[in-house]
Write a structure and sequence with these properties.
- The protein is mainly alpha-helical and 316 residues long.
- It contains 16 helices and two strands.
- The protein has a two-stranded antiparallel ribbon with strand order 1-2.
- A hairpin with a 2-residue loop joins strand 1 and strand 2.
- It is globular and about 50 Å long.
- The two termini are 32 Å apart.
- The protein binds geranylgeranyl diphosphate.
- Geranylgeranyl diphosphate binds next to helix 5, helix 9, helix 10 and helix 11.
Length: 316
Amino acid sequence: MKQLTSGLLQRKMRADGDGMGMLDTYLKERKDIVDKALSEFLPDTGTYPPIIFEAVRYSVFAGGKRLRPLLCIAAAEAVGGDSAKALPAACALELIHTYSLIHDDLPAMDDDDYRRGQLTNHKVYGEGIAILAGDALLTEAFHLLSRADVMDDVSPATRLRVVNEIAEAAGFFGMVAGQVVDLDSEGKETTTTTLEYIHSHKTEALITVSLRAGALLAGADDEALHAITEYGRKIGLAFQIADDILDIESSLDVLGKETGSDENRKKVTYPAIYGIGASRKKASECVEGALADLRSFNAKADPLRQIAQFIVERKS
Ligand code: GRG
């Protein structure tokens, strides 16, 4: 942690967490802190063999929203803790998320040409390197979480719990499971139960664990952890519904990835089953519910409240 987040950076995070004035500025500043930490964590492109570090950095620094890291940090602050303790986990979550995007775009999966406003990883580096870049990012996330010099001010038991929860959310019983059922359901008649399974595993799981990791690392009690988890489930679903609507209504220029792919691939989505109007209503209800889950939190949870609104109002 010492090498990674200088004392200055840590002091800045703590000071800003106390005065919740300009929330937009707050989110931008946290995003910059995450980007800087990610760059410090990842070996530079002069490292041998350079191609893998170039490929990894190409996708990590392609301009993602950093939603999962922001949720992790905002959850740590919402429970009254020190967000600097959550920064390595916030970065690990972004590495896992970026791996999932690189692999999701591969010809064997969604076969997409654009992501985050630029050509997909395999289009630039070839499929072999793109697969390895994803593998390296996933592995590096857990390497980071296990490093003795990061999070050295968090108890080993809490760190182990966070590693365990993140692994569960990313693997067999989380994102991978959701992706498997998603792939398997393409072009088939699908039930709403399957749709809910895909959403809760492919998208909600990593969003919810991002929040839980931040809260756990900041020392949340059971009651706060429960409320944060419920908030995560609801914004996770709202996020996925909004994503499905953007796939219909947005464009490559605005979204940074090709649209209309859900329909082309006959994917099961909220709008496909319920229509756009009902899907929008459901997403708004999820946000209202998520805000209600935070009712016992003070102003330190305002960034979480703002993120919930942003999730359904976003244009990309
Ligand atoms: C390959 C195991 C494996 C899983 C892939 C994440 C995923 C599962 C697929 C990506 C496709 C997709 C549309 C997923 C659902 C929503 C989602 C995760 C969108 C992308 O996340 P954003 O909007 O992306 O947070 P940025 O680029 O802003 O980080």
